[in-house]
């Protein structure tokens, strides 16, 4: 399927690896010029070089920096000042017990997973409206749909972003600017494997045992492939997806047991 976005420009945050990288790759495959950001300059350069090799017809720009800081956002927007597509993404806050979190912990979580996406939307959405095309996708978490007790910081920050977007998405859609969210469950990423490694160490068992157990607990019997996530993201960014807005697409292999 031709998604009709060849030649568009995208800003994809935290895209050196994992789900962000999968989104950048899927957009590049559609002929979209991609600006990639990440904190790790070495990993980002490697990821950008690979996309240039695979898709020489598109422009791949890399901007190393922390997108959750004003300086990081300024650098990213300087490299891609008028994106047609914005993919908001940032690492989630650590797990824990809310009794141990202070104000600084909450502010850090809100800055990264609520306020940073809002600032980037604020900086880009009016231009999208003027050009009568825009696609914004926020990568949040399945915890927005089914909160996880030890991820209270993430639950709060990401749900706050979801509530904010719910109102704005209904105002921009008449200008062909949509705002949606992708809610990932367990995908086979470095983050998932690092968490599994920590669990295995704490339990004194092999990491493969933890991974096998988690896969068996999922209705799909496996973890998600990041490429699947990237394809879903690209579809939401497509020219024919202009009637989808304010939605939260859960991608968890069927783990959420509800009907809505």
Structure description:
The chain is of the alpha/beta class and 260 residues long. The protein has 2 domains: 206 residues, Rossmann fold; 36 residues, no CATH class. It is built from 8 helices and 7 strands, in the order βαβαβαβαβαβαααβ. Strands 3-2-1-4-5-6-7 form a 7-stranded parallel beta sheet, sandwiched between helices. The protein is globular, with a radius of gyration of 18 Å.
Fill in the keyword field for this structure:
260 residues; alpha/beta; Rossmann fold; 7 strands; 14% strand; globular; 3-oxoacyl-[acyl-carrier protein] reductase; SDR; NAD(P)-bd_dom_sf; SDR_fam
Largest sheet: 7 strands, parallel
CATH architecture of the largest domain: 3-Layer(aba) Sandwich
Query: What's the end-to-end separation, in Å?
Result: 28 Å
Averaged pLDDT: 95
Beta-strand share of residues: 5-15%
Q: State the low-pLDDT regions, or none.
A: none
Q: Using DSSP, what is the number of strands?
A: 7
Number of alpha- plus pi-helical segments? 8
The geometry reads as globular
**Can you tell me the number of structural domains?**
2
Please list the strands of the largest sheet in the order they lie side by side. Answer: 3-2-1-4-5-6-7
Class based on secondary structure composition and strand pairing? alpha/beta
The oligomeric status of these chains comes to: single chain
Please write the CATH class name of the largest domain.
Alpha Beta
CA radius of gyration is 18 Å
| Percentage of residues in helical conformation | 40-55%
Order of helices and strands: EHEHEHEHEHEHHHE
Pfam families: adh_short_C2 (PF13561)
Protein name: 3-oxoacyl-[acyl-carrier protein] reductase
Organism: Rhodopseudomonas faecalis
Family: Belongs to the short-chain dehydrogenases/reductases (SDR) family.
